[in-house]
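Cross-check.
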Amino acid sequence: MIQIKSAHEIKLMQEAGRITAAARAAVGALVAPGITTRELDEEARKVIEGFGATPSFLNYNGFPYSLCCSVNNEVIHGFPGKYKIKEGDIVSVDVGACYMGYHGDCADTFPAGKISAEAERLISVTRQSFYEGIKMAREGQRVSDISHAVQTYVEKHGYSVVRDYVGHGVGSRLHEDPEVPNFGNPGRGPRLAAGMVIAVEPMVNEGRFGVSTLSNGWTVVTKDGKLSAHYENTILITGGDPVILTQPPER
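Predicted model, tokenized:
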């Protein structure tokens, strides 16, 4: 069931979103050749707990880290560890924070040093596809209007959107109704209403959209071994323009 948030709940979610965005920015600033993905995880946890919040992902359904850290052809749910980031890698970080019982959720893909022109383009298209999608995130529109806008923009640029994983509602639970796919025909699914909070999160592959899961049971990779990028924000549906609760800092 889709939850419409009260003014009090929205206020708490704004704070959760601010903390989550701060953690994403702090981790992104550290992405560089030589740092380990475990160090990025430690930074995310330090920032979140420093604001008096808790990491949403830590022990969520058994996930053992505070940060999903996915490198190159890893799509989502990458395990932080001993891997030392190399020049030219692209690193997707997905982070959540829970503040007074309410969650924020966001992701971005960061370059490690100098990356290829194609990797830069993939990251740029993925980010912009989010903004194309939320042009449709207005009261009275359907969820699939967002989905269609994301898919149309991505495919226009020669990439593909992952079909196996989707965006979602956010609130007192990290994953709530409705599901928000990044593909599909417009005019379908639940109608958007003021007070809904959703995470819109394009996962975009350089090659085909097929994915598989590694033996750890979590990390999702592209089947063809090509690059993948991820961008996500938690947004509030209003009577006018949507509000990004996990607003990234100006670039």
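Residues 122 and 206 are 7 Å apart (CA to CA). DSSP finds four helices and 15 strands in the chain. Passed to J.P. for a second look.
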